[in-house]
Amino acid sequence: MALIRLLQRTPDGEIVFRKPTSGDIPPYAILSHTWGDEEVIFEDMEAGADMSKTMSKAGWRKIQFCAKQAAADGLQYFWVDTCCIDKKNAVGLGAAINSMFRWYQNGARCYVYLSDVSKPDTGADDQSAWEEAFSKSRWFTRGWTLQELIAPRLVDFFSLEGERLGSKLSLESMIHEITGIAKNALRGDGLADFSIKERRSWAERRNTTIEEDEAYCLIGVFDVSMVPNYGERRDQAFRRLEEEIHKLYKGVNFEQFAIGLDLASFPEAAQFVAREKELLKMHELLHGHSNRACVVLHGLGGIGKTQLAIKYIRRHKEKYTAIFWLNANDEDSLKLSFRDVAQQVLKYHPSTSLLAGVDLDNLDQVVYTVKAWLDLQKNTRWLMIYDNYDNPKTPSNLDRLAVDIRQFLPRSDQGSIIITTRSSRVSQGRRVHVQKLLDIKEGLKILSNTSGRKDIIEDPGAIELVKELDGLPLALSTAGVYLEHVSMTLSDYLRLYKASWLKLQTTSPQLESYEDRSLYTTWQITFDRIQQQNPASASLLKLWAYFDRQDVWFELLRYANAPADRWIQELTKDELNFNEAVALLCSFGLVDVNRVLQQHFEPGGYSVHSCVHSWTVFVLNKEWDEGLARLALCCVASKVPMRDETDSWMLQRRLLQHAVRQEQAILEDKVDMEGMEWALHDLGMLFSNQGQLAEAEKMYVRALQGYEEALGPKHTSTLQTVNNLGNLYADQGKLAEAEVMYTRALQGNEEALGPKHTSTLDTVHNLGTLYKNQGKLAEAEAMYVRALQGYEEALGPKHTSTLQTVNNLGALYADQGKLAEAEVMYTRALQGYEEALGPKHTSTLDTVNNLGSLYKNQGKLAEAEVMYTRALQGKEESLGPKHTSTLDTVHNLGTLYKNQGKLAEAEAMYVRALQGKEEALGPKHTSTLQTVNNLGALYADQGKLAEAEVMYTRALQGKEEALGPKHTRTLQTVNNLGNLYADQGKLAEAEVMYTRALQGNEEALGPKHTSTLDTVNNLGALYADQGKLAEAEAMYTRALQGYEEALGPQLVLSYLPALSTMFVFGDLLSQTGRKDMAKEMYNRALSGYSTIQGPSSKWCRQLEDRLQALQVVSIE
Asked: What is the pLDDT of residue 371?
């Protein structure tokens, strides 16, 4: 900043220059005004100037005013631009122009003298007397006064007479209206908080006497520096200003893609020392290129790749419009990171067309849409960091969890990418090998920072230790954390380290996983110290190798059954013992509180770094410990909750990663499974409930084999597993295999227990459910009736098992279109549950939910809403808002709202259900897919056809994979996709879908089932659109007669698909000249829609328009 030349009012009233110095600048006032005739200039105030001539100038009045007001405010010095800058000195003028913003910013007070605003001396403080003149003041139109308004903290406005009008704060609203400047900017918020476009807009209506000054007056506003060059003309001055802004900021039009840096998405940076060579290389490779730039940081785990990426971001963040951090550890983490990116973009640009309508719960769609946003032609200055890409998919990597990062990279040749990985085989960009630190000073800095020992730079022991640890940041940090908690010298630590290394060298082979052995020995010393302090902590770390590295918590270990291992009994005796043991591991930096999972689960858990976990696996457990492996399996399997327990899905999701690790050990035959069939069974149940059906099948099959070998094929425990395997196959849509299992279980139970034993009846009941799913409704009815009769005899008519069959028989009757019989069953089940279990029990609420569905199908929508609302409230209380059973009712309520025409409410319900199910069950679970299907139907009703197609396609692919192409739920989506194609005008594709759905439904459900009739109706509408009116009429007639048979003449008027048929049938009759028949059909439909959706609904208005048109035709 240039030296400021201040004016000083001496005690005798003389106004003189204060000599500029480079020392402390005294407090000063500063004047803001508009230039007029006869301004006092620098030469008028120089020593030797004729002061009488100076004081005779009109501008002297302003200088006197400033001196007087400064004195009143206790200030001896002040600054006025007209006379405090030597404008004949080009260098001094340029320095002043570049410093002026800061001069105004540093002034104790700024006085704005408005020579065109007069404040009459009326004795009253009447703002209205000068308000209009104030708002039209020339001062608000001048370029230089912009920074004079924004920069100073305290600004006071004065009239021509020197009367105070108010302050920037008191006149804030008026100034905001006059200038359009944001109030926060007027209050002094940092200008970096405001976009370039917004700051530029503040000067749009301002002008300057000299054209180049229109650019120069903005130098301070944009915090840049440039040398004035008067004579270059306005356009060139602005071009140079833009160039400087672009150097400092991020380029032209970047605001439409500018996203604030989200530090919360970054991992916490460890103590980092500058790797200048790598940082310079990264900058060279990433910045200033017109096409895609990608850098792969590869090296040993714990070498500092993540910290290097963070350092680069902090240094160069101003050069990018947006910076996004993604966890590339696995596909799920990547997809969740993409959702975070989408949320960040929407936070700053909520109306961006690509993302505004995206379903944030459809992670595949989110990934696709975010990539499309990154591929936009002008969006070229983003930076993506893919961190922890440690399991890349390569031809030699057969791990099914390996990640193919290419699916998650934007396609356009633009932007910048950093990938961090342990693998040197990642070839997506220019590779930078992150190696050990070569400068010993950098190692000493890490050791000093982490140990808290500040005076070690000259310590010979520290220097030797750093040399021995050989520049590995994680090893240095671990050593530092150790030294922070002990009183030994660094030389003593080095001595222990060397002794430990010699021992390790003679007893352990070199592991290929790491290129440097000192990493292990550092942790070995720490581990030995931990073992001395608390053997349970050391044993816990060793046991950790048999769990997933993330999220171990007290309750997971609490009920471990290992009589031979007293340490685990002591560790889990109470939570204080566990906390003490894990706190010691945390204090040495080996374990961390899992902050991310802590947001989702209570109580929170602990995690170890993946590198540390590998060390526990390959070093601490270099010989596989079957006892610890079995103990870990017992811990996980013992915690698997039953599905109807409160918050069971949350616990199951938490256990899933550990179950995957147990499965791996089991499949590799690393665990002694004798007597552990129960654990296999429980893991199977966990995988099944979480939608991982293939994994569930492996566990159930092994459990079955174990039971058959140990107990025989006809033992009741064996048969129970057979029954459960049948349940699994049913969930997978392998209905034939499920039938084999159920049949075997049924025959076995009949032989072992008799045909009327409750276990036998359970399988009979399950077989009924299977037949129902296969569309064999008569066989299903026979099974349910047998089960019901058996339960009534064995347990009584009010037993809960009896009532469950009553409930399911009601569901079967509903599927058969026997709605009256279904209502009888549901009502009986509900009354029985309320008596036996109470009105708020989950089984009661399930029947309430089912009764709601029945009322919906009967067209009793008000009664349905009452049932669904009751079920939802009860389930939220008893199971929690995110339980899958609760979400089922949320889904059903969405369907009801859709039928009532409340589309916004329906969307809210579906989105909530989908988000919850994806979290609880995964994106490919059949229950999730059903909600995806229904959300597609809703989008279609809303006219969002592209979004609907995405939903339907996802649902169809998922259902075909999980249930098979002929399953009724698959066919439902096929039918819906036909509807969509018809709406899109793709009539040939629609006919293919409808025909497939009709044939499938006729085979599975029969020609008169309501689902079959829905497709018949849709095929009729398609034929009408194709001009095949005879075929259309045949379809409509069949559909309407079928609905009337199934529902009766009254209920048919409240069944939406039937009303839709009446509507389109009326159109057909009108089109073919049968006006009276059309009128009758329209009136029937209008009566029904008026009852269900209200007389002002969309469909009622359209029907009234058609009836009015028919009336006009009749008159004519």
From this structure: 95
Which strand (E) or helix (H) includes residue 52?
helix 51-55
Tell me how far apart the alpha carbons of residues 653 and 605 are, in angstroms, rounded to a whole number: 14
Asked whether the predicted pLDDT for residue 599 surpasses 70, the reply is no
Residue 819 has pLDDT above 80, yes or no: no
Tell me the pLDDT tens digit for each residue of 1068-1103.
999 998 999 999 999 999 998 888 777 887 888 899
Distances (CA, A) of 514 to 84, 386, 423, 510: 68, 22, 11, 9
List CB contacts of 863: < 8 A, sequence separation 6 or more: 852, 855
Give the tens place of pLDDT for each residue, 999-1043: 988 887 788 877 889 899 989 989 998 889 999 999 999 999 988
The pairing of beta strand 606-608 with beta strand 591-593: antiparallel
Q: What is the pLDDT of residues 32-47, one digit of tens each?
A: 999 998 999 999 998 8
**pLDDT at 766 exceeding the cut of 60:** yes
Strands (E), 404-486: 416-421, 430-433
DSSP letter for each residue of 889-954: HHHHHHHHHHHTT-HHHHHHHHHHHHHHHHHHH-TTSHHHHHHHHHHHHHHHHTT-HHHHHHHHHH
* Average pLDDT taken over every residue of the chain: 85
Question: How far is Cα 446 from Cα 923, in angstroms, rounded to an integer?
Answer: 44
Instruction: Report residue 830 CA to chain centroid gap.
Output: 40
- In angstroms, the Cα distances linking 565 to 125, 533, 540, 618, 837 are 87, 19, 12, 22, 42
Encode burial over 863-875: b for 16+ CB neighbours within 10 A, e otherwise: ebbebbebbbebb
The structure tokens listed for 207 are 């002008």
Q: Rounded to 5 degrees, what are φ and ψ at 422?
A: -85, -15
Whole-model pTM?
A: 0.48
Cα 449 to Cα 843: distance, rounded to the nearest angstrom? 59
Is residue 597 predicted with pLDDT exceeding 60? Answer: no
Q: Strands 28-32, 430-433: parallel, antiparallel or unpaired by DSSP? A: unpaired
Rounded to whole angstroms, the Cα distance separating 1028 from 586 reads 75
Interval 662-702: pLDDT, tens: 999 999 888 888 889 999 999 998 888 776 778 889 999 99
Instruction: Note the pLDDT tens digit of each residue in 126-137.
Output: 788 899 999 999
Task: Kindly state the greatest CA–CA separation across the chain.
Answer: 127
Neighbours of 626 (CB within 10 A): 13
Give Cα separations from 24 to 20, 27, 28 (angstroms).
Answer: 10, 9, 12
Residue 98, SS3 per DSSP? helix
What pLDDT is stored for residue 507 in this prediction? 29
Residue 507, SS3?
Answer: helix
Q: CA Rg, the chain, in Å?
A: 39
Q: Judge whether 359 and 911 are in contact, CB under 8 Å.
A: yes
Separation of CA 795 from chain center: 49
Confidence band, pLDDT 50/70/90 cuts, at residue 75: very high
Characterise 32 by phi-psi region: left (phi > 0), alpha (psi -120 to 50), beta (else). beta
Token pair 């390996």 in the structure block, residue: 402
Helix and strand element counts for the chain (H, E): 51, 14
501-541 tens-digit pLDDT: 334 223 222 323 233 333 555 467 668 767 877 889 999 99
Q: CA 12, 16, 20: angle at the middle one, nearest 5? A: 135
Phi-psi region of 1073 (alpha: psi -120 to 50; beta: other; left: phi over 0): left
Give the whole-angstrom CA distance, residue 40 versus residue 60.
Answer: 6
E strand segments, 328-472: 382-387, 416-421, 430-433
Task: Report the C-alpha gap between 846 and 84 in whole angstroms.
Answer: 84
CB-count exposure of residue 527 (10 Å: 0-12, 13-18, 19+): buried
